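USER: Study each token:
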Amino acid sequence: MKLAEALLERKDLLKRLGVLKERLVADAKVQEGDRPAQDPEELLSEAEGLCRRLKDLIAAINRANSRACLSDGRTLTEAIAERDVLRLWHGFLTAVAEAAVPSRDRFGLGRQEIKYVPTVDVAALRKRADEVAKACRELDAEIQAVNWQADL
């Protein structure tokens, strides 16, 4: 099995667990004298089995991420950490740039005009955010390529 296939299975397992959780929550209690739509014990058993498979799959994915390398020699684990930080940094820069843009509502309580001015260079922040987003996309493409080549 390729690493990418394992990642798809992990995503599917998480989705299935979410659906099971919703079904269990919906049937966790019923009106006295009624029966749940599905047997909660059966659903719990199914969810437990999915959790066991998920644990094994995550461990295998983590081992593969530690072994597989990008063309520059970085492991997938290192590349994923870098991608995560790039995403965080992009969100950080974007939030600061958005916060610095003056709002259209510029009037205070006494209908006196209040003028706000940015304390940061919004254009420069947005440019930096775009550069970070590009670096993140490029790194993600490299990670995806390795995912389809690396064996679990």
